[in-house]
Protein 1
Amino acid sequence: MLTAVNPKIPMRDKAVTREFYLNKLGFEDIGAADYPEYLILKKDDIEIHFFLFKDLNPLENYGQIYIRTDNIIDWYESALERNIRMPEAGHLHAKPWGQMEFSLLDPDHNLLTFGQSVEEQGGGF
């Protein structure tokens, strides 16, 4: 039986990545303090692992994570209030596959897409 998936994405600087996820997105550091090249962060039931990749070119980074939520409006408004960088087409909108989605970029250009079923909101977006 599979019980969870924990994506691993690259980071160039552990302190910068840690600060972004803790202070901008409300994650908590749950381990890897003794490992300078690794970071584990958690928020609710989401756990993301990061590995050090000092030579990463952020403009060539294709790291992506899709995160389902039950409060997409709150997440989107929080991202706007905190001036978190979003790709040009990353703002909140309904997708043809029945999801409301928005995307943001972390300091290394890992793309985080947040999604919620339109049906969960009663179609009221």
Protein 2
Amino acid sequence: MSSVTGKVVLITGGARGVGAEVARRLHDKGAKLVLTDLDEAPLKELAGSLGEDRVLTTVADVRDLAAMQAAVDKAVARFGGIDVVMANAGIATYGSVLNVDPAAFRTLIDVNIVGVFNTVRAALPSVIERRGYVLIVSSLAAYAAAPGLAPYNAAKAGVEHFANALRLEVAHLGVDVGSAHMSWIDTPLVREAKADLSTFQEMIGKLPGPLSKTTSVEACGKAFVKGIERRKRQINCPGWVGLLRWLRPVLSSRIGEPQVTKFVPDLLPRMDAEVAALGRSMSARTEALEK
């Protein structure tokens, strides 16, 4: 029997990608699921494939604290409480600091940082009551920056430190807190960026060593579930990502930065030109959900 059998797990951004993969795997291990997302159709499809006896879905915007509180209240009413919360919902933007749409930047910060706060704030009383576990989905981007992704890098570094501070606040209450850090995962977010911008794929290919590789959603889901079961402080996918946590001071130094800055003068203007031609700084799917 898994340590998550019978546990209630709240996952934001649960309709697609890593959120959906983790949901499937936890459900297979006997967990009860509370899944939220803005995208109603795939959320319903996932719930239908899993069955409704151990699954509660709610269309909710993580930027809205009242909506997240309502989702938590429904979960408590249905299942009695929440044992694990996985703050997973997130988006990306395209373009350099000089050219990214300021409205897109604001949206990213609201979803990727404010949304994490709202998710945790709403669920935390129940998690404390059950001496549970909080997983904040950060990224390798918290360890190593990439040109053209400054808003995303900033947000993921921010939520990593949010997790670190939260851990200090709730450890004495029996709650464990972890942060998850992934390299490029074959999610809709990454696939959409590659489809929109040839320079995005080119940039990934120019990164040194394993930083240029993309990992499957299945491998990421497996790593997340293992980390949730063990209530880990850090979940790294692939495993080598954890090394970059210790190399972070070098990566942002005169030693590490030339590996990237050597291709920026050529690639970044072309990326910005592609973004300008698109007429948007986010994926078409993300923009559609905003309307």
Protein 3
Amino acid sequence: MSDSIPPAADVREAVAAIRREEPRVPEVALVLGSGLGDLAEAAEAARAFPTAGLPGYPHSTVEGHRGRLVFGRFEGREVVFVQGRVHLYEGHPVRAVAFPIRLVHALGARRLVVTNAAGGIHPLCTPGTLMFITDHINFAFANPLVGPNRDGGPRFPDMSAPYDPAWIDRAEAEALRLGIATRRGVYLWTRGPSYETRAEIQAFRRLGADAVGMSTVPEVIQARYLGMQVLGISTITNYAAGLHPDPLLHEEVLRVGRQIREDLERLVRGVVRMGA
């Protein structure tokens, strides 16, 4: 068996390791992006599992990604926070990048909220903007479903609406009620870890991308394969390359992520609270 395709047994073993200590079944899984990991600290009656101790779980090496699963009550619902996303650019196989999604699904979660930090391409996607993802462009040309189809889902899953339109509508209405300004847009995934060139950003804009980042898409593909409902929220933390005179720095991404954390937390609380 290829090392690039972790066996399904790894998911079962990881579930068993968690179930020895945590019997709660999460309704919603939340994947936390760069600079947003502290949102998990808001969970009540929380129990954290270091992902380094879970069979098959890939190791996160990026600042701002702590490497834990946090179970708890959040706005009256059982949730699990993925506090430590992994990325293709860290050297993980793409199937391993999607391992956390297979795990939270096996633990019972059927709804997924994914957040990320992204660079704004659309002129109105300025730093500090919260953007509901309506669709994505897979410019990394990688897919976690490549290989034997042994997880029980469709061989050729439909991806015409990867982000649930009705959920976006309800979340947008909740944001309006909370007085939080949001936008809708298309997210483009690149492999990274280098930021994009000016020419690439101009090309992405012509392709219809409103924001660009280095995560999320493999997780969403895996979730839709498993039949999960998905809501995606990008925090626009910087202008994409060539749209601002200053160079792009990861420290700036983290700084803006911290600044917008309060609005993002209120929005995610509202999304979870309103239910399905």
